[in-house]
Design a protein that fits this description.
Layout (H helix, E strand, L loop, with lengths): L1 H7 L6 H24 L8 H67 L30 H28 L6 E10 L6 H9 L6 E12 L2 E11 L5 H9 L5 E11 L1
Antiparallel strand pairs: 1-3, 1-4, 2-3
Length: 264
């Protein structure tokens, strides 16, 4: 009975042997995968081609190694200088922080130990006291006559200077306001004698009016306008009067326009 019971029990007696075999199998698979990943595809062709391809692979590999070494050397050469700069900056920063801390401590000490200063009241100036007439006014002023004489003399000199200034000022010529005007005078048609029209315009004369240069400016269809300049005194000659007087020459003049007006 006991033997039959043991025969029916499923017991894995050689489990350790199976574990070792399994681990060995997986190790072999891992090695094969690494070898297959690093394996180089065999080159097809003759032996010389294979050798040339192998040289190209070796050359590329050496070039990559050289580039990596150059980068490492450059970074290693710059490293001491960068470390020194960082140390210097760190030292300066520490000194600055220490100075700021000392200033803050001094400021706190000054604020805590400061005594409030008394306020200074700003008052308006005290008006001068006017002494009331008393016994002092009755005293005799020994120098009163001299001061009155000096005041009268100073007033006389001041009046003389004012009179001389006013006389000098009145002798200066008054500024006369003048204007420079350019008039455009248009005739009726192309048959109008422009020379006669200009002569008739220049016959207009009055105090404060001075005629200047004139020229003919073509308009259209053989018609030209007379452009003439003049200088007038604003107080003596009115622009409206001048244009109306020119327009009274109805035999020659159709219209009068002001082309330019400038103060002189």
């Amino acid at each position: 009975m006991p033997t039959t019971a043991l025969a029916q029990e499923k017991v894995w007696v050689t489990k350790s042997a199976y574990d070792k075999a399994e681990s060995a199998h997986f190790e072999r698979l891992a090695k094969e995968s690494r070898v297959s990943a690093c394996a180089v595809t065999p080159a097809s062709g003759s032996l010389a081609n294979e050798v040339a391809k192998a040289r190209q692979h070796i050359k590329k590999g050496l070039q990559c190694v050289n580039n990596i070494a150059a980068d490492v050397n450059v970074s290693l050469q710059d490293l001491p200088a960068r470390v020194a700069k960082l140390e210097k900056d760190n030292h300066d920063l520490r000194n600055t922080v220490a100075e700021l801390r000392a200033l803050i401590e001094k400021l706190d000490l000054k604020v805590n130990s400061a005594v409030p200063e008394p306020y200074i009241a700003i008052c308006p100036a005290k008006p001068q006291e006017v002494e009331a007439p008393g016994e002092d006014d009755n005293e005799v002023d020994l120098f009163g006559s001299d001061s009155e004489g000096e005041d009268a003399e100073a007033a006389k000199i001041r009046e003389e200077r004012l009179a001389a200034y006013n006389a000098k000022k009145s002798k200066k010529p008054a500024l006369i306001a003048k204007s420079n005007i350019i008039l455009d005078i248009k005739p009726w048609d192309d048959e109008t004698d422009m020379g006669v029209m200009q002569a008739e315009v220049r016959k207009i004369a009055t105090d404060g009016l001075l005629w200047g240069a004139a020229k003919l400016v073509p308009l259209a269809f053989g018609i030209s306008k007379l452009q003439i300049s003049c200088v007038v005194e604003d107080d003596k000659v009115s622009i409206d009067w001048l244009t109306e007087t020119i327009q009274e020459l109805e035999e020659y003049v159709q219209s009068v326009d002001i082309a330019a007006f400038n103060k002189v």
